[in-house]
Amino acid sequence: MKILVPIKRVVDFTVKVRVKPDGSGVELDNVKMSMNPFDEIAVEEAIRLKEKGVCTEAVAISIGSAACQETLRTALAMGADRAILVETDTDLQPLAVAKVLKALVLKEQPHIVILGKQAIDDDCNQTGQLLAALLDWPQATFASKIEISGSNATVTREIDGGLETLEIALPAIITTDLRLNEPRYTTLPNIMKAKKKPLDIIPIADLQADVAARLTTLKVEAPGPRKAGIKVQTVEELVSRLRDEAKVI
User: Fold this and answer.
1) Strand, helix or coil at 118?
2) Under CATH, what is the fold of the domain 2-244?
C-alpha cells in the first residue's frame, strides 16, 4: 500500500504576518517558512501507518519553488521514503493544486492520499475535497482517528455535534485534524539520512494540468486595531449595549 502526502511551505506559525505596502499580498521576503502544521500531522500519520505495517511506502509531495525542497527534506527526515517536487514559481489556487495532485495520483497510483485539512496561510480548506471530486474517490475530512483494515478505512471525524465515524473504501482521500496525532521531532541522524533519500523534481508543465487562476485578489489589508473593551454594571446594561450599540441582538 502506498500513501501520498501533499505538503505546503507556508509562513511559520510563530511569525507575525505583515501585508505588503501596495496591498498586493503578504510580505514573504526574509520571513521564516516551515511546513504547514496540518500537513505535518498528515506526514506523521502516514509514517505511523507505515510503522504498523499498513503501508509500504510514504511519498511526500510539494508544489512550488525550489525552496520547497527544504520542506520536503523535513518530511523525509520525519520518515517519508521519498519526495516529489512539482516545480513552479506561480502561486497556485486550490483548484489548480487539486488538478496537479490528480495528475500525480494517476501517475503514482496510491491507495490513500492524506492531506492537512487546510493551510494556515489562506485557510481555504478546499484542496482535499476538490481532489476527491476530481478523482471520484471517497473522502473523509477532519480526521481525528484513522484505522485501516484490508481495503477499507474507518475514520473518526470531528463535527459540530461531536464525533462521526465513517467507513470508506480505498482508494480514498483523508484530511487531518489537530487531534489526530502529535508530529515527532526530527533528529540529527534522520536529518542526515534525509539528504540521501530520493527527491524527484518535475516541471509543472510536464503534468499538463490546467492551473489557470479562477480568482483575482483585489486587495489585501491588515485587520484594524482592536477596540478597547468596556465594563458594564448590570445585565440590563449589557443587553442594552448589545442591542443598541453592537446591534447583535
Assistant:
1) coil
2) Rossmann fold (3.40.50)
